[in-house]
Structure formats: C-alpha cells, structure tokens
Amino acid sequence: MAVLWTSADAAAATDGRATRPFAVTGLSIDTRTIRPGELFVALKDVRDGHDFVRDALARGAAAALVSRIPDGCSDSDPLLLVEDVLTALEALGRAGRARTRARVIAVTGSVGKTSSKEMLRAVLSAQGRVHAAEASFNNHWGVPITLARMPAEADFAVIEIGMNHPGEIAPLAHMARPHAAMITTVAPAHLEAFESVEGIAHEKAAIFEGLEPGGTAVVPTGLPVTPILLAAAKAHAAQIVTFGPAAGSDYRLLDARIAGDATIVQAEAKGHPLLFKVMTPGAHFAANALGVLALAEAVGADPAVAALDLGTWSPPTGRGTRERVYLDITDEAQSFDLFDDAFNANPASMAAALDVLAATAPRDGIGRVAHGRRVAILGDMLELGPDELKLHAAIARLPAMAAVDIVHCAGVRMRALWQALPQAKRGEWLETAAALADRAPHLVDAGDVVLVKGSKGSKVSLVVGALKKLGQPGAAEAFKGKE
C-alpha cells in the first residue's frame, strides 16, 4: 500500500519527535482491527490507549502516536512522541486536509448523515477517487482521523460531521474546510443538550462556518427551521442550493414512490424534469438523494451521471437494509422480510421507517398466522430530553401505524409507546432488547414484513441478530441460485 505519512511528515505536522524513522499506510485507534503498516493512535477514553501500544506493535503497527513511552516499550520502538495525543491527531488531520487536492464535502443533519455520505461515496466513485469517512466517524475523534487518512491524490472527500452538544460542529467544520456542505434535515434529537429544535438548527447550521471561499451551502426546504439554516448559509456561503418539497427549491421533490426494493423519484432539477431510482425503499432516501445530487454538482461532478449511479446504491447495514430470512431450506415461501434499521432513532427517522414498513406488502397464507403481517420491533429513542416519554407515545399517532399489525417494544422509554397503542396492536414489551431477542421465534412468522428500529444504545441490534439466526444456514444462497 502507498505510504500515507512518513515519520518526518508526521512529526512536522504534529510538532512531535519520532524515536526512529517509520512510514505508515493508515491510522487506527483500535488494536482489534488494526492492520499491519498502520499508525496506532493512543487516545484516552474509558481506557488509556497507551496500555495497548505494545499489543498494537505486536500486531504489525508501523508506529504509535503517544504522549509518553508506554510500559513495555522503549526509544527503540517506532513512536511519535507528542505533548497531547488528541491535539496531535487534530494537527495531523489539518495537515492531511491541507495537502490534498480533493474537493471536500461535509454532511450533517439529524437524520441521514451516514446514508447521504454513503450515497456520495457511491455516485462520486464513478467520477474520481473518493475518500470518505468509515462507519459513523463523525465526532471529535472521527473527523480528524478521516482527514488524516485522506490520500493526497484523492479527487473527492466526504466528511460526516455529527454532534451531541452545542459548540461541536463549528470546530470540526473549520478543520474539514469543505467546498460544499449539506444539512440533511433538522429534527428532535439530542434534546437532552438543547432546549429546542431551533437550538439544534443553529448548531447544525454552524457547518457552513467552515466553508472555503466560494463554497456552496446545500439547504433543505420545507422545515420550520429552514429560515435559520438559510440565514447561516447566506452569512458564510458564496452559493446556496436548496432541495426538498417546497416550491422554488432548486432540487424539488415532486413524488417518491416505493416499488418493491426501490424508490422511484420524480423531481425537478433547476426547473428541468428529473426521474431516477434509489435501490432501497423510503421517501427519506429520495429527499437525501436530491441533496446528494446538488453536492455532486457543486464539487464539479456530473449530476446526471450521479443520478444514474444512485440506482446501484443501497444503505449500509443497520440503516434500513432489507433482507429475506428463510425459515426452511426446502421451502422458499417459508420466510419473512427484515428491515434492519437498528443503528439510530429519533422521532423523524422512526416515522420514515414506519412509512416504509406501511408501504411494504406482506405475504398471506404461508405461516402460522392466516395472513402476513407488518411487524414493528422498536427500541428506545435516546437523548430526547425531558419530553422523551411523550415523544415515544406520540409514535402511536403516526399515520403509518394504521397499517402496522403488531408492535413489539423493548426498553423503559418504549413502554410509553406500548401503553399508547390500541390493545389489538400491542405485542410484547420487555425491559431490555436482550430479553426481547430471546423471544425472537415468537415475534415473527413466515410472510411477515418486520422492521427493527431503535437507537444504537438501546441494543435493539440484538433482536436483529436473533431474527437472522432463525434463518436456515445456506438457504439464501440456495434459493438465489434457483432464480
């Protein structure tokens, strides 16, 4: 692999001292996943990364970024000594950003950050070399790591920026220095740290403060807080591009229709008709796709080619992926469809996921139950502040709930929803996702369409894992071969 940082370059960027010459091909903060040739960054969290340096070097790390010589190491080991590891990582990120020729995009929003980032990775890859954040690397660690990992020869870079508290986005935006930045949407989330959705909007809008001169702000329309976002864009951007359902939007969403495993999108792009598909069901994906097309155009990519390439994109695991779980290796019909959306949840994303469930048809007459059902398995939505129980209960009043047959709930907060449901829709409620996962065989049936959704901290992914284990090994491959 190509050298990412030499010891001399890394020392110059961080004002550090290399104990011996080295060259690294990547960065890692986790010895469990570190690859030979990478720089291990000894950050402090629950554990001190210095305690794992010896293990990282034994696993093939080319060097370690440290603030002291760790136990079990010496000056003979390849170490980059700095005053503070996080400060040095930030400096390495700024240096990585400064040396690249890439057109840089930054994405934030209450919902859809990671999906939009992955859309951008997919559509820009056909038009140049793309560097994008891994997983949800979007915080005070993830952004500098992503920037420090950026190859100098990249053509495009996509940086995801998130927040939990006020004042987090602006410093990361200044570090990323994007040529174009997008806010996907603003919705009730992280209300433990913010007094209102308007406060969240002001924090999200801080992403525009980091725009490069001549930069483009991509702003969603049709939100109560759109004026807040537009005011920030006008203060910091040379160009503003709007997307969404509102009349006058530069990229206007006219219709999003779910068709099987895809969403057919009808829109207007600067007054011209636009028709494309996204290979996953969900109107929220359609809206984000329009923002992605606006970003692609802003950084010099061909938006028409990007629109075609959206037809090959599907969301990452845990963010709305759909798969069929086969219960019988001899009978293809004995199966259910599973939407895995277990990574993140707030009222807006919960509503979007339930809309997808409501629009997906189950299959009748093949299971223990007489008809196929739409089944929602929901875990707690976290960080919603003092009104969290009211926000959970309000899910029962969403229009999509009329089409849902049964709702199973996990978590102390989700009990508020379970109690608000009509008796006929109440499935099981258990205090933990682990307990509900143990009930997996009793929650679903052949022919069902099943949604599993909750915040990552609710651990509702345990239910996803338990449901997948109901599937027969090798069945998916066997039935695929018969198509």
Automatic annotation (TrEMBL):
Q: What is its EC number?
A: 6.3.2.10
List the molecular function annotations (GO) for this entry.
ATP binding; UDP-N-acetylmuramoyl-tripeptide-D-alanyl-D-alanine ligase activity; UDP-N-acetylmuramoylalanyl-D-glutamyl-2,6-diaminopimelate-D-alanyl-D-alanine ligase activity
Q: Which residues are in the Mur ligase C-terminal domain? A: 330-455
Q: Where is the Mur ligase central domain?
A: 107-296
Give the Pfam families listed for this entry: Mur_ligase (PF01225), Mur_ligase_C (PF02875), Mur_ligase_M (PF08245)
Q: Where is the Mur ligase N-terminal catalytic domain?
A: 24-68
Q: Which Gene3D superfamilies match?
A: Mur ligase, C-terminal domain, Mur-like, catalytic domain, MurE/MurF, N-terminal domain
Q: In which pathway does it act?
A: Cell wall biogenesis; peptidoglycan biosynthesis
Biological processes, Gene Ontology terms: cell division; cell wall organization; peptidoglycan biosynthetic process; regulation of cell shape
Which keywords does the record carry?
ATP-binding, Cell cycle, Cell division, Cell shape, Cell wall biogenesis/degradation, Cytoplasm, Ligase, Nucleotide-binding, Peptidoglycan synthesis
Q: Where in the cell is it found?
A: Cytoplasm
Q: Gene Ontology terms, cellular component aspect?
A: cytoplasm
**Catalyzed chemical reaction(s):** D-alanyl-D-alanine + UDP-N-acetyl-alpha-D-muramoyl-L-alanyl-gamma-D-glutamyl-meso-2,6-diaminopimelate + ATP = UDP-N-acetyl-alpha-D-muramoyl-L-alanyl-gamma-D-glutamyl-meso-2,6-diaminopimeloyl-D-alanyl-D-alanine + ADP + phosphate + H(+)
Q: Which domain of life is it from?
A: Bacteria
Leading EC class = ligase
PANTHER family named among the record's database cross-references: UDP-N-ACETYLMURAMOYL-TRIPEPTIDE--D-ALANYL-D-ALANINE LIGASE
Task: Write down the NCBIfam families for this protein, in alphabetical order.
Answer: murF
Protein's job:
Involved in cell wall formation. Catalyzes the final step in the synthesis of UDP-N-acetylmuramoyl-pentapeptide, the precursor of murein.
Of which family is this protein a member? Belongs to the MurCDEF family. MurF subfamily.
Name of the protein in question? UDP-N-acetylmuramoyl-tripeptide--D-alanyl-D-alanine ligase
Q: Which organism is it from?
A: Paenirhodobacter ferrireducens
